[in-house]
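BUG-457 | component: ligand-complex export | severity: low

The export step for glutamic acid jobs runs without errors, but we want the raw record kept on the ticket for reference. Input record follows.
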Amino acid sequence: MIVTVRFAPSPTGYLHIGNLRTALFNWLFAKAEGGQFVLRYDDTDRERSRQEYADAIREDLAWIGIQPDAVLRQSDRIALYDAAAERLKAAGLLYPCYETTDELDRRRKRAAARNLPPVYGREALRLTAEEKAALETEGRRPHWRFLLPNFDDDPFKTRRTEVAWTDLVRGEQVVDLASLSDPVLVREDGSVLYTFCSVVDDGDSGITHVIRGDDHVTNTGVQMAIFQALGIPAPAFGHHNLLTTLSGEGLSKRSGALSLRSLREDGYEAMAVASLATLVGLPGSVDAMADLESLGARVDLTKISPSASKFDPAELDRLNAELVHAKPYGAVAEALAALDVPEPKAEAFWLAVRGNCERVGEAALWRDVVFGAPASAAELSEEDRAFVNAAFDLLPDDPWDGTTWKRWTDAAKAASGRKGRALFMPLRLALTGLDHGPEMGALLPLMGRERVISRRP
Ligand code: GLU
C-alpha cells in the first residue's frame, strides 16, 4: 500500500495559517511514510471558486516547500460523481426530495417547539409516484438525499447506529447515524455536494489517510456510510484541532486574515509560519525549525491537543527573529542585493546586523545607517555634543578594522574620563541616530572613516 493523502481546499480565498496546519499534517505524514500528497481543489461551488485562488494556493504551498505529487479539481470530475449518484439511486439509497428551504425551516421550528432533535423525518420517502409527478408538474425539481443506514427494515424506525473508527489523532470515535439527517448529496440543479464528491474522489485517488480539521468528525460518520454504500474501502481518518485567533474566533479564508499571502508579503519566513502552524497544540515548546524535515520529526498526530489552539502573532515574530538571527549570508544574498546593500561589504554587513533584525527586510534600516543616511538625527545634550566633537578629533587613521572602535573609544575615554554608557551612547547616537543596534565595533569599519566624519554633530 502506498500511503496517499490529500489536501482539499476550496479555491474560495487565500490559504490561512489554519489551512496550512492541515496541509502540513498531511504533507509531513506522507513524507514520513514515503507516500504521495495529492492537492485536490474542492471547487464544486462554481459561484465562489476562482482560478486566481487556485493558483494562489499552489504558490503559497510552494513557498512553504510543499510540492504536490498530483493535482485534481472536482469540477473536472463531474461525470464520475454523476455515475456514482446513479448507482446509489439504482440501489434506492439516494432518494428525491421536494421540500423548499422554507418548508424545512418550518418543520425544524415545529420539532424544536416539541423538544425534538432537528433531524429530517424522511417525509419525501412517503411520496407516491403520483405525488412526485404532481410536484414536478408544478415545476418543482428534486434534490437528493442519501438514506443513512440507521434502521433495520423500516426507515421511519431509526435505531442507534454507531459508526466507529480509530482516529489517527483522537483515538476511538463514534458517530451515531440515528442522530443525523439524511444528507443532501445532489442539489435541485443537479450539482453534487462536497460530502459526496469527496468520498468518490478519495476512493478514485486511492487515498489511504484523510487528515483534516475536527470540524469534520460528524461528516466522517456520514462519509463512512457512503463509502460502504459505494463498496469502497474507507481510508483511515485523523481529525486535528483547529486554530483560532487569540480571542477564540475561527479563521476564515474569506476574511483574508492571517493568509499565507499576507504573511509572506509582510516578510515572514516560510519556516516560521510552518513551525507555528504545526507545533502549536503539540507537546513541547514551539520552536522555529530550520526545515520541513526537522519539523516532521516533532509531529506526533496522537499528541495533538483535543481543544482548539490559539494563534498568537507575537509567537510568529519570536520564531521569525530566531530564524533571521541565525540566517547565513548565502540565504539572504539576493534579498540584500535587492535592498541595494553594496556587494563587497554585504556579508560582513549581514553578520553585523542580523541579530537586530526580526525580518530580513529590516536590514534596510541598517543599510541606511551604514551606507546612507540614518532616518533620525542624533539628539544630543550640549555636554554630549561637546564630548562627541572632541572624540571625533581622536578618530584613528585608516585602515579601519574590527579593532578600530575599541581603539577610538579607549582614546576618548582617556581624554574625557567618561566610561560605560556615558562614553558609548553619545557616540552610538551620533553615528547611527539610534540608541540601540548592532555592535559598533562591527558597524564602524563598514561605515568607513569618511561617512563617520560626515556624522559629526
Ligand atoms: N474542502 C473541504 C474543506 O476545506 C475538505 C475537507 C476534507 O478534507 O475532506 O473543509
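Assignee comment: Attached the raw record above. The chain is about 45% helix and 10% strand.
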